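Record filed here:
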Amino acid sequence: MESKDWEQIRNFKEHERWGDKSLIRIELIKELDDFRDYINSPVFISCGTQGQHSPNSLHYTGMAVDVMFPKLKAKDLPDLLLTAMRFNFSGIGIYPHWTLKGDAIGGMHLDIRRSLIKSLWIGLANNRYLALSFKSLNDHF
């Protein structure tokens, strides 16, 4: 995104933890901005293009972001996942073990991969991932 693009964004600023903000796709930020308005709760950007991810990660192309919700708890993640599904995120992962300032609040990966079918998962400690199902939700929430 370019500096002028940030003028369209209501809830996020250019100086947040985007990594290389020139790579971040405006479509992702606009969708995240609308999601933030809808849930009416602060959203903390924990990772944009930076960090260690798989070699083909969408983070490196500016099409993915990891977020946390400082005023919510990990138990709220299933509801946030259902809400995120209303938006144009095509990859949605929930991570109940993520912490912010020592509090286990959980977080989400949101991306705009090119796909007609949404990819949904639960990320566990030790880089384990489970496909989203009633059983996986029940086992971890």
